[in-house]
Prior knowledge:
Blueprint: H1 2-12, H2 34-45, H3 48-57, H4 63-88, H5 94-105, E1 133-139, E2 145-149, E3 161-164, H6 171-185, E4 191-196, H7 204-212, E5 215-219, H8 238-255, H9 261-278, H10 287-296, H11 304-316, E6 331-335, H12 342-361, E7 378-382, H13 386-389, H14 392-405, E8 410-416, E9 423-424, E10 427-428, E11 435-439, H15 446-453, H16 459-468, E12 473-477, E13 481-486
Helix pairs in contact: 1-4, 2-3, 8-9, 8-12, 9-10, 10-11, 11-12, 12-14
Amino acid sequence: TIAQIAIAYSLQRDKKFDLENLSETDNKGKEYPESLLGEINRQSNDGVYKAIFNQHYGRRLSEEEFTKLVKLHMDHGLEVFNRDILQNNKGKNAHIDYLLSIINSGLSLVSSTPVFTTHSEQHEMAAFEGLLEIELGKDAKTGEPVQIRINDENEFDNQHMALAGMSRSGKTQLIKDILYQIHKKSDGTLKFIFFDYKGEGQSEALNSFLNATDCDFINIQEKALKFNPLTSVSLTNERDRDRNIMKFRESLCAVDKRLGVKQGSSLMKAIQRSFEETMKQGTYPSMKDVYNALLEDYEEKEDSLTALMRDVSGFVFDENYDPDFSFTDKNFYINLPADLPESARKTSVFLILNHLLNHFISALDVKPSSDGIKPIRYIIVIDEAHAYLDSPNTAKVLEDLLRMILSKGVIVIMMSQGVKEYKKKYFDFTSQVKIPILLNVQNKDIKTAKSFLGTPKSEVPMKDALKKLESKKGIINFDEPKLIDINMFWQRKM
C-alpha cells in the first residue's frame, strides 16, 4: 500500500524523469521483490498504471521504460516520505500521522509545490518585445563596454541570472544598474519586484534608484502590504477552494519547518472556517481573520504556528487589504528589516512568489520572434538568496519557480554571498541559470569558479581574472572568461 501511495505521491508532485537519458538514470542499486510490485503489476495489466504514466509523460511508453519509471517514481515518493517525516514530525507515531494526513486530505490534493492556483484557462498577457541589451561594465583590460543581449535566445536560451559576491563586492549596485537600464530600455513598461532581505532601508542612495525607476518602497515593518495572499483561493468552486486552501497551508509549512502535521491541520481548519464566514458577504478573509479563527479553538499556549500567523497578519499583510492590489502594474522594492522575525520575512516572500507564479502560470507561453528575441513580462530579484536556499523545503519553491516561470517570460535574478550557496546536494541552482556573474568572493580557486561560471575554453584567462578579482570587479564566462569593472549605479549621472 505504501509503495502505491509513494508512486501516486511522486506523480502528483509532477516529478518527471528524463526519458531521453532513462538508461543512465541512477537506480541506486535498489531491487524490489515481486511481491511488493505484484499489485502494481496486476493493475498495470488492466491498463490503470500504464494509462496514468502515459498521460503523465505525454506519450505511449515502452515496457522497458514503464518498468523502470515505476521503480524510479516509487523511490522518489519514498525518499520524500522519509525526508518529510524526519524533518517535520516528531514522536513515536509520526510516520502514521504523516501518511494519514495525506490520505485524509485526498491524494488528488497533495502537492510538494506550494502554489495555489484557480486553474483558470491560459490567456494572453502583455510583454515587452524589444531587445534588452544591457551594459554590465567595462572590460578591465581594454576599457571597452561589456554588453549582453539578455533576451536574445541566440545568446542565452535561459534568462535567469545569478550573482555571487561578498558584502561590499558591488553586486547590489550592479543589479540596481541593470534594473535601471531595463527600465529605460522598456520605457518603464517592464516591471520588477526587488526583495531586500538585508533590510537596507530608505537611504539617500536608495532614493536615487527609486526615483530613477519609478519604484515604490515598502518597509514591511512600517507599512503593511495592502495585498491579501488568500485572494488566490477560489470563492466559486468548492473543490478548487479546498485545493487552494490545502496548498496555502503547504506554503506556510514549507517555509517554517517547525510546523508539523497537527499544526497544519489546525491552520487548514481555521482558513476553512474563515472562508465560511466571509463568503456570506462574497469577500475573502484576511490573514488577521485566519489568525483570530486559529486562536478561537487553540488550546495550547502560543507556539510556532500562532507566532507566525501573529507576525504575518500583524506586520506583513494589512487586514484592510485592497482587493485590486497588483504587484505587476508598477515596480516594488520590498524591504525586509532584520529585526522582523525571520519566519515572517521568509513567509511573506514566498507567499508573494506563489502569487506571482500563480499569476504568470495562467498566461500563454511567450514565443521568440523570428530573429530570436524573447518577449519579457516581469523581473523578480531575490537578494540574499542563501536565506531561502539553505532549507530543502524553501529551496524546492525556488526550484519550481525557476523551472515553471521561464517559458512565461519572467526573469529571476538571485544574489548570494558565495558560490556554494547555489550548489546544494538536493539541487544545483546554477543548472537553471545561464547568466552567472562572479564578483569578489572569499574562495577564488579555479574549481569553484568553473562550477559557477562554466568550464572555459582555456583556464589561463580565468586564473588571471581570479588573481585580479576584487571589490567592484566581476568575471563573466560567455565567449571566454573576462574580468570587468562592473557598473555601479551610484556612479551613474541622472
